[in-house]
Amino acid sequence: MTDPHGRTTRRRASDQGQAAPDDDDQDLDLVERSLKASGCLELHYQVQECMVDHKDWRKCREPVQAFRECIQAHQNRQSSDPSTQSTHGPISGAT
């Protein structure tokens, strides 16, 4: 299976006999859906394309750094958003 950019992607859950997601992203695997939700999917594709083209991560430092910064920004947003944090405290009686 290929994505819209012509790259080979993993098989969908529906192709493996599992229920398909009910959203428009059913062609994306779990990792791709997570990256899309973070806003970093296109940067992920840029890193992949660079690695395919150059086969040397050292030549892909700029797209890797941009992707890293995007993921870090997403994680920072998640950690500062109270709705994404656990409301459970430590377990009572734990020693």
UniProtKB/TrEMBL annotation:
Annotated segments matching region Disordered: 1-28, 72-95
Keywords carried by this UniProt record: Disulfide bond
Domain of life: Eukaryota
Signal peptide, first to last residue: none
Record GO cellular component, one term: mitochondrial intermembrane space
Protein's name according to its UniProt entry: Putative coiled-coil-helix-coiled-coil-helix domain-containing protein 8
Transmembrane segments: none
GO biological process, one term: mitochondrial respiratory chain complex IV assembly
SUPFAM superfamilies: Cysteine alpha-hairpin motif
Residues of the CHCH domain: 40-72
Organism of derivation: Tigriopus californicus
InterPro entries associated with the record: CHCH (IPR010625), Coa4-like (IPR039870), Cys_alpha_HP_mot_SF (IPR009069)
Bias kind Polar residues: ranges: 73-95
